[in-house]
Amino acid sequence: MRFRVFIFLLWGCLLSSCESAPSQASEEQVTEPLPTGLYLQVLGIAQDAGYPQTNCRKTCCAKVWSGQQAKQHVSCLALIDPVTKQAWLFDATPDFREQWQQLTTALPGLNLAGIFLTHAHIGHYTGLMQLGHEVMGAREIPVYAMPRMGKYLTENGPWSQLVDFQNIVLHPLVADSSIVLTGDIRVTPMLVPHRDEFSETVGFAIEQQDKSVLFIPDIDKWNRWDRDIRTLIRNFDRAYLDGTFFANGELPGRDMSKIPHPFVAESMALLANLPKDQRQNIYFIHFNHTNPLLQTGHPARDTVLQAGFNLAAEGQRFSF
Question: Which residue, of 122, 136, 198, 303, has the greatest Cβ tally within 10 A?
Fold first, then answer.
């Protein structure tokens, strides 16, 4: 109860965070030697529209536009096998070009072995356009998608052209059924409640032997899911969870019930009783441009870290 009170008292100071001047970029990009075995890398941490967001004139984006603060790419993970030089992306974002360049610069000769899609909102699949004949002219890249997601790509242009020209080959996913990749790594989709206008929405479990990662960049509310996130989280060594908004009221003049996400403040309250080592495995990701967690030095960041949780940052790696 004290934790909830603390969060809401702090939030009273944060409601105008988008208007207050941020100090610098949310976090310097992580740079370290490449692992020699399978690893997962964070390629982006922003919500679908990116950071800064188009036509945003508020202080939260102004310093990025002026070059005083680094941009943040849209939320994406990459699974990389440096031995076979294969990479699998989790979502194809509007920042696909920069994200793929980042990977291939670090590991020349890297091949795109597949893309796993969570759902049909703009930040999660529109990067597929880079595979088309106007750009990469890719050949038969496996794209793993749930049934409605695959149907949407097949029946709607310009995505259907990728299928027709065999730039991509659709591989159907089944909820709670695993796909086995290199090195016996398993990827399992889990249906989550979200605004499913064009497709289902899934999160992914990425597992190999005794190591595992959970990736849920979008979900409406934890209490609308038929699983208990508190129980589920105990089975994973790392979890990247929806951190779109820090708390209610972040978008002045907007009814935030119309754009449901579990506020970071809500998630922390829900997960506060987990042991410290489990809380440290939780990394919030998919931040809206208004989210104060993007701003280095903002007290909201200290609140998250002091409560024992973590924040995703571009370049972070997790070795299997």
Answer: 303
